[in-house]
C-alpha cells in the first residue's frame, strides 16, 4: 500500500449515496437523506438516502420478482460462478478505493481494513463461487420400489442486516453463500458504515449479476431494518450485530411469517493465559492486538484477559507496554495501529464502561480516556483495567471498544468457571505448552471458536458462530450454506 495513493483517495469528494433497487440507484421515496459523519474528524462526508418502509418494500418486491422468474437461480452453475468470480476480481481491482471509502465512514485503521475488508470479501465471494457446483443433493437408502431424492433448493429472498465494524467482510459472509445458492438478497447496511458496502453492490451488477437479485437499502435500523424483519416476503433473515437488535429480529419473525433468523451477536471472549505459555512476551503482544485492533470493535475481540495468578503482575505490565506501543490516530495513515471509534455515541459508551469499571473496584493500568480530541475525531486510548471481578459489568457486558478487563485465576477449574460465567460464547483463547490442558480448555470453554497459543485470524475455511446469547448458525466455510438452502424431498414410486 502506498501512502500517496491513500492520500489522493481520501481527498476525493464522496458523492451522495442512494438505494440500489431493481438495478437502479433510487433516492428515498420521500426524498429524505441522512448525513454520513466521518469518525476521523467528526465532519460530514456526504449524505445517503434515509430509507422508508416503502423503499424496503420495493426492494423486497424486486428481490422476489427476480427469484420467481429464475433470472439468477435458473442460470447454469457455471454461469453463476463466472459472475461471482468476476465480482471478486472487481472487488480486488478496486480494493484500495473500497478500503479508503470504508475507512472514511467507519474509522478502522487502513492496514487492517485493506486486508479484512476488500481482501477478505473478494476471497469469500470466490470461495462460495468455487463451491456452488460442488454442492449436491442426496439419494436416500429407500426400499427398491421407491426413489427418495433430497434436493437442495435456494430459500428465496434473503434479508441481510450488516453491522458497522467490518461491513464488506461481514457483508460477503452473507452475500457469498446466499447468492451462490441462487437466492435473491436485500441488504441493509449499518447507518454509520454503508458506503463501501453500497459500492461493493454496484460492482456485483457490473460483474453481470442480473438487476433485482441484489438490492440494498440504506437508512435507520428501526425503520428499514424493522420493515425487513416484519416483511411477509423475506424467507430468511441473517444478521450480525447487537443482542438487543437480535432479539427484536426474532420477535419480528414471530409477528410476521416465522422467517428463519440467524444471529451472530456479541461476545465477551476470554483469553486465558497460563504460566506455562510457550512464549509469554508473544502472548502479551497478541493479547493486546486481540482487543485493541479496530478499537476493540471486533465481535471476537479478546475482551477478558484471565491470567494465572502467579504471573499476573508481570504479564499485565507486558500487556500494558504493548498497548502503549500501539499508535492511536488517523486511520488513513499507514503507521496507525488503532484508528477511530466508529461514532461519538460509541466513544461515550466506551468511556462510560471505564467509569463503571472503576466504580466497581477496577484499577486503570493504562488508557481510560479520549485522545486526539483536537481533531474532533473519535479516538480512545487502549485501556487496561485490572481487579475486574467475574461478576463486574466489565466482565459481563460487551463494550465493543478498546477496553480490556483483567481477572486472575488460580487453577484450570477456576479458569474454566470464570471463562464460562457470561451469557456469551463466541470466541476464546488459551496459552499453554501443556497439550492435555490445551485440549481440555478447547473442550470445556463454551464458545464457537477457541484459539490455542494465538488469537484471531481464523480464515474462511472454518465456521464462525456463537453459542448461548452469542447467537446461532454459522458464517464462513461450507457450513454457512445450510442457512441459504431448503431441503426438499421427492418420494418417487418406481
Ligand atoms: P450496534 O449496537 O453494534 O450498532 P445494532 O444491532 O444496533 O448494533 O446494529 C446492527 C445493524 O442492525 C445495523 O445495520 C442497524 O441499522 C440494524 N438495526 C438496528 N436496529 C434495528 C431494528 N430495530 N430492526 C432491524 N435492524 C436494526
Describe this entry's structure for a reader.
- It is built from 15 helices and 21 strands.
- It has 494 residues and is α/β, with parallel strands linked by helices.
- A 7-stranded mixed beta sheet has the order 14-17-18-13-12-19-20, with helices on both faces.
- α13 (393-396) links the parallel β17 and β18.
- It starts with a helix and ends with a strand.
- The mean pLDDT is 98.
- Adenosine-5'-diphosphate is lined by residues 161-163, 188, 190-191, 221-222, 225-226, 229, 241-242, 245, 248.
- Adenosine-5'-diphosphate binds at residues 161-163, 188, 190-191, 221-222, 225-226, 229, 241-242, 245, 248.
Report the total helices.
Answer: 15
Query: Can you say what the CATH homologous superfamily of the largest domain is?
Result: Aldehyde Dehydrogenase, Chain A, domain 1
Uncertain regions: pLDDT < 50 for 5+ in a row? none
Query: Helical residue percent?
Result: 25-40%
Residues in β-strands, percent: 15-25%
Notable characteristics:
single chain; 494 residues; alpha/beta; Aldehyde Dehydrogenase, Chain A, domain 1; Aldehyde Dehydrogenase, Chain A, domain 2; 2 domains; seven-stranded mixed beta sheet; 15 helices; binds adenosine-5'-diphosphate
Amino acid at each position: 500500500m502506498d501512502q500517496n495513493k491513500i492520500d489522493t483517495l481520501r481527498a476525493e469528494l464522496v458523492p451522495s449515496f442512494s438505494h440500489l433497487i431493481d438495478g437502479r440507484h433510487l433516492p428515498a421515496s420521500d426524498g429524505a437523506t441522512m448525513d454520513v459523519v466521518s469518525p476521523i474528524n467528526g465532519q460530514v462526508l456526504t449524505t445517503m438516502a434515509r430509507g422508508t418502509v416503502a423503499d424496503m418494500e420495493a426492494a423486497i418486491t424486486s428481490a422476489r420478482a427476480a427469484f420467481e422468474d429464475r433470472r439468477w437461480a435458473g442460470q447454469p452453475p457455471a454461469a453463476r460462478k463466472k459472475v461471482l468470480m468476476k465480482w471478486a476480481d472487481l472487488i480486488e481491482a478496486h480494493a484500495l478505493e473500497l478500503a479508503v471509502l470504508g475507512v472514511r465512514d467507519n474509522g478502522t485503521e487502513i492496514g487492517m481494513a485493506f486486508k479484512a475488508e476488500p481482501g477478505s470479501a473478494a476471497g469469500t465471494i470466490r470461495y462460495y463461487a468455487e463451491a456452488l457446483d460442488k454442492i449436491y443433493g442426496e439419494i436416500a437408502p429407500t426400499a427398491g420400489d421407491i426413489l427418495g431424492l433430497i434436493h437442495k433448493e435456494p430459500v428465496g429472498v434473503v434479508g441481510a442486516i450488516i453491522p458497522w465494524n467490518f461491513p464488506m467482510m461481514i457483508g460477503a459472509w452473507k452475500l457469498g453463500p446466499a447468492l451462490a445458492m441462487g437466492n435473491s438478497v436485500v441488504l441493509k447496511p449499518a447507518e454509520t458504515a454503508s458506503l463501501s458496502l453500497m459500492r461493493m453492490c454496484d460492482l456485483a451488477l457490473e460483474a453481470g449479476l442480473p438487476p433485482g437479485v441484489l438490492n440494498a437499502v440504506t437508512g435507520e435500523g428501526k425503520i428499514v431494518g424493522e420493515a425487513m424483519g416484519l416483511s411477509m416476503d423475506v424467507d430468511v433473515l441473517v444478521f450480525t450485530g447487537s443482542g438487543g437488535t437480535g432479539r427484536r429480529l426474532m420477535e419480528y419473525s414471530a409477528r410476521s411469517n416465522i422467517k428463519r433468523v440467524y444471529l451472530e451477536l456479541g461476545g465477551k471472549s476470554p483469553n486465558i493465559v497460563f504460566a506455562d505459555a510457550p512464549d509469554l512476551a508473544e502472548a502479551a503482544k497478541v493479547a493486546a492486538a486481540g482487543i485493541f485492533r479496530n478499537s476493540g470493535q471486533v465481535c471476537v475481540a479478546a475482551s477478558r484477559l484471565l491470567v494465572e495468578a502467579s504471573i499476573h503482575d508481570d504479564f499485565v505490565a507486558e500487556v500494558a507496554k504493548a498497548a502503549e506501543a500501539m499508535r492511536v490516530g488517523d486511520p488513513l495513515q499507514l503507521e496507525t495501529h488503532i484508528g477511530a471509534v466508529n461514532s461519538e455515541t460509541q466513544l461515550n459508551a466506551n468511556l462510560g464502561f471505564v467509569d463503571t469499571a472503576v466504580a466497581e473496584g477496577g484499577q486503570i493500568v493504562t488508557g481510560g480516556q479520549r485522545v486526539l480530541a483536537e481533531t474532533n475525531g473519535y479516538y480512545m486510548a487502549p485501556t487496561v483495567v485490572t481487579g475486574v471481578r467475574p461478576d463486574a459489568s466489565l466482565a459481563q457486558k460487551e463494550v465493543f471498544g478498546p477496553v480490556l478487563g483483567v481477572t486472575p485465576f488460580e487453577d484450570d477449574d477456576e479458569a474454566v468457571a470464570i471463562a464460562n460465567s457470561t451469557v456469551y460464547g463466541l470466541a476464546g483463547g488459551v496459552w499453554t505448552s501443556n497439550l492435555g490442558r490445551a485440549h481440555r480448555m478447547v473442550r470445556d470453554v463454551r464458545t464457537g471458536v477457541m484459539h490455542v497459543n494465538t488469537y484471531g485470524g481464523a480464515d474462511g475455511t472454518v465456521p464462525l458462530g456463537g453459542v448461548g446469547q452469542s447467537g446461532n448458525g454459522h458464517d464462513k466455510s461450507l457450513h454457512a450454506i445450510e442457512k441459504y438452502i431448503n431441503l426438499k424431498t421427492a418420494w418417487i414410486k418406481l
